Amino acid sequence: MVDGPKKTVGIAGIGGLGTMGIKLAKAMGHTVVAISSGPSKEKLAKEKGADMYVVSREEESMKAAEGTCDLILNTIAAPHEPSHYLGLLKANGTIVQLGVLTEEWKANNMSLLASRKSISGSLIGGIGTTEECIEFCHKHDIYPDTQLVNAK
Fold this sequence. Notes:
Order of helices and strands: EHEHEHEEHEH
Largest sheet: 6 strands, parallel
Strand order of the largest sheet: 3-2-1-4-5-6
Oligomer: single chain
Number of strands: 6
């Protein structure tokens, strides 16, 4: 995704992994759509580089973003229905599950077939892709957000 055509990348879940996803996708030159269940993380998402913010629990917000994403990186590790985001995908779009879900979930087969959408998953890349990612982050000054906790 670094080289090649620029895309609209959705990042579902605006936590630690999600904010890194926003930074990386933006540094690669993609348009970034941050997706969260409520409005409270909009400012954070936009500070990290999101171009657009979608509230997944608000029908109007989801409708406004319908069919905008080529790819959605789903970083949410809490119980939810990943298929809820299918409407945000363009035809031939893909949702990549990065957040670990331990509960079963369902996808409407017609939602996948009609627009050639897909859902895939990934746990981690190998050593080579991890090194490539670290080098990219260094080149573009991308660092994780940290918080110092004083445990006395």
